Amino acid sequence: MLIIGEKINSSRKDIKDMVEGKNKEFIQELAQKQTEGGAQM
Question: What is d(CA 13, CA 41) in angstroms, rounded to the nearest whole number?
């Protein structure tokens, strides 16, 4: 089974705002948390 981290999705307002604002640190932190939680993609 492949576990996909879905929290980084620009259809979510908070993520869209961070992407548009080029907030790289926020996106990287969220990706790291998902990886630590078991996400593989």
Answer: 21
Domain ranges of the chain: 11-40
Which tokens is 36 given? Answer: 């630590």
Tens digit of each residue's pLDDT (9 = 90 or more) over 13-36: 999 999 999 999 999 999 999 999
Report pTM: 0.74
The answer to whether residues 31 and 15 touch, using CB atoms and an 8 Å cutoff, is no
Number of H helices, E strands in the chain: 2, 0
- CA torsion 30-12-6-29 (nearest 10°) is 0
